[in-house]
Structures are given as structure tokens and as C-alpha cells.
Design brief:
By secondary structure, this protein is mainly β. It is built from 4 helices and 11 strands. The chain has helices at about 45-50, 75, 125-130, 195, and strands at about 1-5, 10-15, 25-35, 35-45, 55-65, 80-85, 100-110, 120, 140-145, 150-155, 165-175. Strands 2, 3, 4, 6, 7, 9 and 10 form a 7-stranded antiparallel sheet that branches. The protein starts with a strand and ends with a helix.
Length: about 200
């Protein structure tokens, strides 16, 4: 079993506060701020791993970029957030009015740990569906599940501080793809050349 970290190659935040624009900065926002909804999209390029390895588990790791925002433990304790699979691509032109469609049947809920500087969520079931070809990897959508969800602020793929960039921690193996070598017994005979026979 091997382990690798795959950093997000794209990230963006949209909001109904500015429906024709987006947040394309060093931070991403998830949840609600002053009754406005904030949704974040992330993309991880897993093409090399999906073809050459068998992925056994995957955890999404997000680093808080403003630790002072997370001091309200009692407020955050029962606030759920959700991760969904995108059915369409997103880009730097994505906004609230043209947001991509998503698949709600494979939702993963999570509650952030206020005692840590990061949030870790197991999304193995989504990544396995990507690898098996059941779902297409067009990215993830992260959002608050209730209108009372306190905003979460994490580092984005564009963050200049590498320690704040989101990544997938992937456990994988190549045993089933590249089986171990097997010794084979071979027999051979040497025949005289045509010239020698003549």
C-alpha cells in the first residue's frame, strides 16, 4: 500500500451576494454569511492514479485560513456541511447564475472540528466511483446544508502558502494492476542451419 497527496488544481467560490461574479482568490468560502449563500468548487486531477493504481481510500484535507473565525464551538457543533459530485465542469467564468449541475445521490456530510486547524473528510466512496467509471470526475461542490451554517474559510488552490492548499490524501496499491513476477519453465531445441544440411 502506498500513500500520495494530490493537490487541488482548480478552486472557486460563488455566492448569491454577487450572482454574476465569483471569488477566485487565495481563500474559499463555504456556508452562509449574513443570509448569503457561499458555495465552493474544487477539482483534483486523478487521471494518472486512476489508470495505474487501485485506490483504496481518499480523504479531503482542507486548511483553515482564519483560525479566529472558529472559536464558537457550541455554535459549530451541530452544523452540517455537504460535499457533492459535479455533473458539469466549472471555470473562472462560473458564477451563481450559471452554476454547474451536481449529483445529490452521493452526498457526504461533515461537521468541522473546531479544535483543529484543518478539516479532514473521507470521500473514498466518491473517488472509487470515479475510478470505476460510474461517475465522471468533473470536481466537487462544498456547501452548507442549512441557512444557519456558519461560514468556513479555507485556503484555496491559488494560496501562495503551500501548507494551506487543499489536497486529497490517497491510499493506493498496484498489486492488482501489476502482478508480481512469476518464474516460467521453458524448453528449447537447437536445429542445424539450412547451409549445414546441404
Amino acid at each position: 500500500m502506498s500513500l500520495t497527496d494530490v493537490y487541488a488544481s482548480k478552486s472557486i467560490t460563488i455566492s448569491d451576494r454577487f450572482p454574476n461574479e465569483n471569488v477566485n482568490s487565495e481563500e474559499v468560502f463555504i456556508g452562509n454569511i449574513n443570509k448569503f449563500r457561499y458555495i465552493t468548487y474544487l477539482y483534483f486531477d486523478l487521471s494518472s492514479l486512476e489508470k495505474l493504481c487501485k485506490i483504496s481510500s481518499s480523504k479531503l484535507v482542507l486548511f483553515k485560513s482564519r483560525t479566529e473565525e472558529y472559536c464558537y464551538d457550541n455554535y459549530m457543533r451541530d452544523k452540517e456541511y455537504g460535499i457533492y459530485v459535479l455533473k458539469e465542469y466549472f471555470s473562472s467564468l462560473t458564477n451563481y447564475n450559471n452554476m454547474p449541475q451536481y449529483d445529490c445521490t452521493h452526498e457526504i456530510k461533515f461537521i468541522p472540528n473546531t479544535n483543529k486547524i484543518y478539516t479532514e473528510i473521507d470521500i473514498s466512496k466518491i473517488v472509487k466511483l470515479w475510478q470505476e467509471g460510474i461517475l465522471s470526475n468533473k470536481g466537487l461542490m462544498l456547501t452548507g446544508n442549512t441557512w444557519s451554517s456558519k461560514p468556513l474559510i479555507y485556503g484555496s488552490s491559488k494560496n501562495k502558502d503551500i501548507t494551506l492548499k487543499p489536497f486529497l490524501r490517497v491510499n493506493y496499491s498496484t498489486d492488482d494492476i501489476f502482478p508480481s513476477q512469476v518464474e516460467l519453465e521453458c524448453k528449447y531445441e537447437i536445429f542445424p542451419s539450412v547451409n549445414e544440411e546441404s
